[in-house]
Design a protein that fits this description.
- This protein is an alpha/beta fold and 274 residues long.
- Helix content is 38%, strand content 9%.
- The chain has helices spanning 8-11, 33-42, 59-66, 78-93, 96-108, 132-145, 150-163, 200-215, 219-224, 241-244, and strands spanning 49-52, 70-75, 170-173, 176-179, 234-238, 255-256.
- The strands form 2 sheets. Strands 5-2-1-6 form a 4-stranded parallel β-sheet, with helices on one face. Strands 3-4 form a two-stranded antiparallel ribbon.
- A hairpin with a 2-residue loop joins strand 3 (170-173) and strand 4 (176-179).
- The longest helix has 16 residues, at 78-93.
- The two termini are 38 Å apart.
Length: 274
């Protein structure tokens, strides 16, 4: 059924680009939080629990939680699991001291003071994805992360995931990584130029600042919006929904909101190889 409210912007990731939390990681296969809110309202789902068996980056889970509804998600890909778990840590586990630590990382660029490096593994399809200086900075950053507690480590690694594409020679394209001509890899007849490739230190610093600004609103905002509705709980199952769903309790959910993978031969996970 067609509906004038369901524009291409709303049913795709595009509408998330301006929304805190949802905009941090560019997960192109996601739909927007606005679509989830529309569906919950349209079908009068105001309480209970929802399920997303293909949770992706967790849009359905976090949008449901914001309306006070509990949400269970199932996600097979480690990248999706890491995104969701990092958002959960920021949402409910991070302490004021943890926020001070990541603020410190953005102010002092802690990784630059680390003399050791953690080896960055490569796949055949990601070999040469970064300039040498960028690769060295990533390895310093990963080593420096080890000095922090588990909560801060999870968030700092999530920050890195958020900027990898922007600091690399690649861009997600369909089911492939498209390579900029500056990578030196084989080119088609028309060389691809992805535009500005961000410098590592600035990319990391700006992403940390964005996350902090989204989660710690100004005093004025706090005074303007003092009332906060109770939020739902999120539970994530890591693995295949084919194996996990048969083990879930019967009639446990009030709604299922999901976007399953297309039934074709494409391996969309290749675009997340970085």
């Amino acid at each position: 059924m067609d509906h004038p409210s369901l524009t291409r912007l709303i049913v795709s990731f595009q509408a998330n680009k301006t929304r805190p939390i949802y905009r941090w990681y560019k997960y192109k296969e996601a739909f927007s939080a606005s679509l989830i809110e529309y569906l919950l309202q349209q079908y009068k789902t105001t309480q209970g629990k929802v399920l997303d068996p293909f949770a992706g980056s967790g849009t359905a889970l976090f949008a449901a939680r914001e309306t006070g509804i509990d949400a269970d998600g199932i996600e097979l890909l480690p990248i999706g699991q890491q995104i969701i778990n990092a958002k959960k840590v920021l949402d409910s586990e991070f302490t004021p001291e943890d926020f001070d630590r990541i603020k410190n990382w953005s102010k002092l660029q802690v990784w630059k003071q680390c003399e050791q490096k953690k080896h960055l593994p490569e796949l055949r399809i990601t070999k040469g994805a970064y300039a040498e200086l960028t690769r060295n900075a990533i390895e310093q950053y990963l080593e420096a992360c080890k000095l922090e507690n588990n909560r801060v480590q999870a968030v700092l690694k999530f920050v890195l995931l958020c900027v990898l594409e922007s600091i690399s020679y690649t861009r997600k394209h369909g089911q492939y990584l498209r390579w900029d001509y500056r990578s030196g890899r084989g080119q088609s007849k028309k060389p691809f130029n992805k535009g500005e490739i961000l410098e590592f230190d600035n990319a990391i610093t700006n992403k940390i600042i964005e996350i902090i600004d989204d989660l710690l609103p100004s005093t004025q905002q706090i005074e303007l919006f003092p009332i906060k509705n109770p939020q739902g709980q999120i539970h994530l199952y890591g693995g295949s929904c084919l194996e996990i769903m048969p083990r879930l309790a019967n009639a446990a959910y009030d709604a299922i909101i999901t976007s399953p993978p297309y039934c074709n031969r494409y391996d969309y996970t290749r675009t997340y190889a970085l």
